[in-house]
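Instructor's aside before we start: the two examples that follow are unrelated to each other. I chose them only because their records fit on one page, so don't look for a connection. First example below.
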Amino acid sequence: MILPASPMGCPVDSLLRLLMGPWTTYILYTLQHQGPTRFGALKRLIPGISAKVLSERLKMLEHAGVIFRQQKASIPPQVTYGLTARGDELRSVIDALEDVARRWAAEDAGEAIAAAEAAAAE
């Protein structure tokens, strides 16, 4: 696995640099929940991503050993992407981040409702 270099030599920073790329966490999240997925289906599951960016991110993740690319010789070629063992190791990290994100969103929504009710009461 080739992680981006960290200027400080911190391994966590190196991993986060890999994950921070545009669309990267969304791609991993989708593959985690959908399982191995063909390119076209993956593009449809990630609204707003261009084919070029999806292709670039998939190549980067494959190069890092996080996902695999399986091509079936057919016309047109059938290319499927999925998580490798290393990508599967990120499952608990992605799940934990999802839990925090959902909890924070609920807290923010509760605060927004409370603020709206307070403003309406004035």
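Example two begins here.
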Amino acid sequence: MSQLDDAAIGMADRLKLFILAGEPSGDRIAADLVARLKQRVPLAFIGVGGDELARQGLRSLFPMSDLAVMGVTDVLLRLPLLLWRIEQTARAIRKANPDIVVLVDAQDFSRLLARRLKQLRYKGQMILYVAPSVWARAPERAAKLRPLFDEVLAVLPLEPAFMEKLAGPPTTYVGHPALGERQRRDAVERGPLVLLPGSRDGELRRHMPIFRQVAEALADHPALDGIAIPTLSALKARIEGEVAAWGVPVSVVADRAERAGLYDTAAVALAVSGTVTLELGLAQVPMVVSYVMDRHQADVYDKIGRPAVSLPNIILGRAAVPEFVQAQGDVAVLVAAVRELLDNKKARQTQIASFGELSELMENGEAAFPRQDPADRILAHWHNQRALTGS
């Protein structure tokens, strides 16, 4: 049983869950949580998600892609739809009355949805899975989340301490499904150049033309054995259509097992900042990180002091990998950075050594905030709620 039908709702020993993911990285986190809970308790759930949650049995209320926006421009273009989705989701939750609502990332949408649920007097537990980056910008947001969420499940080991310091909701470090990507390897003498241009529509629009020029400029490098783009199954046809016009052959990989094999043999990667940089680090793939912003993002980034954006650098607290955050994509800079990494085995090996530290931190958490199982946290809230209500 995976949906909140009438029979399921009538069973007191069944955890009734609403879960929402707004983009592919959140979908993977949400699916991992659902799989863990299924191993522990009878579970009925509804929500919003993508391919990963669908594999767990979810029939999404609407396409997850409706929520996958980044930057003010993308948000404004979809604002009427996003406002409607908030109301639609809130009504669905109020009608189903699940025990627990878990909102995975999609920070603005999740915050507005939680606020709307409070207005509708939803009495169940609300959990935010993936902490907002209050340590990088807008620290005042932490305290504003406290009335909305019963707990935050953090995927970065540094986040519980920051949330505590900023008077945010109780926060627990639970690790990340990307820990499954961990491997040990040395610098590869010759292998593919892996390109990861993002998954959101705006990211793909801004990065695919730039990554094309980088690929064409470096295709003949002696350390490279082909060019590959790992992507989602839903995006494979789009990516294949775009790379068909490139001046170099590109392999587009959507299968997870193939992606793991690609990471194992990759010489280097050029990746858009995001969860994928954590996956690459745990897989010990040397990388260059890029992010091309829209105008509003660029203004905000300058105002907050241009902090690190790639997860390996954020977690380790130093510039372990080169990153280039730009208002306009500078192809020459990216070509030079990737070429330098290809030419310098010691630089690749230094990154790999840093990724060993990254893996240890992600595996264990910080001493004051050790890693816990996310399913344990959800079940703790459920059992406490049942104890209070006598159910």
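The chain has two domains: 6-175+371-389, 182-363.
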